[in-house]
Amino acid sequence: MAVLVAGGAGYIGSHTAAELVDNGEEVVVVDNLVKGHREAVGECRFYHGDLTDICFLDSVFSENKIDSVIDFAASSLVGESMSKPLDYYKNNLISVMNLLDKMKEYEVPVIVFSSTAAVYGEPENIPILETDRTEPTNPYGETKLAIEKMLKWCEKAYGIKYATLRYFNAAGAR
User: Fold this and answer.
1) Which of 2, 61, 73, 84 could, after both became Cys, cross-link 6 (CB 3.0–4.6 A)?
2) How far apart are CA 69 and CA 1, in angstroms?
3) Sign of torsion, CA 112 30 15 145?
4) What pTM was computed for the model?
5) Where in the sequence is the domain holding 150, given as residue range(s)?
């Protein structure tokens, strides 16, 4: 059984994939390489393609025994999302809809979703609590919050368990 790491050639995804491999997990990485780097993937099985392409995603699931998904794939620049909102909605929402569709079809029971603290907008309190009000101020945050809601409904309808990670900007080196 394998863990599918979507966006696994990016900064956070490649570190996660490497840690999984170091812990003996079989890892399958999917990335469109728009922002990621092939050399960051290391020893993992790698598929170059786009999650908005359902046929591509079907080939990944049909060729591998996926038992969980970790999704780091997204358009993620706040400023760019303000000038290209439709691009962000198309990429971020359709990608996760396709992942969930294939997870349902192939009976993959769990996903960890990389969300963002941008779902909170301008915080009323510091530190921000997970239970604080969500009110995104940009399309990027809106897409992530919409996906969180989609995950909630897919858990109710299909039993797909999920966890979301609402972190701030990550920085470092590989």
Assistant:
1) 73
2) 11
3) negative
4) 0.94
5) 2-165
Work out the burial of residue 92: count CB atoms within 10 Å of its CB; fewer than 13 is exposed, 13-18 middle, 19 or more buried.
buried
Q: What is the CATH number of the domain that holds 46?
A: 3.40.50.720
Predicted local confidence at residue 124, as pLDDT: 86
- What single-letter amino acid sits at 19? E
Q: In the structure encoding, which two tokens stand for residue 43, read together?
A: 């020893």
Please tell me which residue in 11, 47, 140, 162 is annotated as part of the active site.
Answer: 140
Q: How confident is the model at residue 174 (pLDDT cuts 50, 70, 90)?
A: low
Query: In this predicted structure, which of 34-43, 114-123, 140-149, 154-163 has the lowest mean pLDDT?
Result: 34-43
SS3 163: strand
Structural domain total, the chain: 1
Closest CA to 117 of 171, 169, 70: 169
What is the separation of C-alpha 139 from the centre of its chain, rounded to a whole number of angstroms? 16
Task: Answer whether 116's CB lies under 8 Å from 123's CB.
Answer: no
> For this structure, is 140 an active site residue?
yes
Buried b (16+ CB within 10 A) or exposed e, 25-46: bebbbbbbeeebeeebbbebeb
Task: Say if 117 falls within a structural domain.
Answer: yes
